[in-house]
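Could you help me review a protein record that somebody else here produced? This is what I was given.
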Amino acid sequence: MPPQGESTGIVFEDAVLLARCLCRWQELQKTSGAESPMKDAFDAYERLRRGRIDAAFEESKSVVSVVKDAGWVGHTIKRYLVPWVLWWGANTREKHFIEDVTTSDIGF
């Protein structure tokens, strides 16, 4: 299956979350008066995204290994298995589709 643009969605989510972390860092600088390194904002962003990005990377690797040419028999088996695999992972995909990174708790 060719890429369907999932990476583009992840990039937009990353940009929004990084911007929110940086804005929160800036707010904390103004309100508390205490100087904290900008690294705190990047660490918060890393905590938010590392699990999702690692999972997407592993999923991408598995898709690439499945799509390799396997001949007629392999292609036929995959054709019948793909609907079941998509059904099996539907809940995980649904969670990613409904996630709103503009309102999610950034924990920072």
Residues 32 and 85 are 50 Å apart (CA to CA).
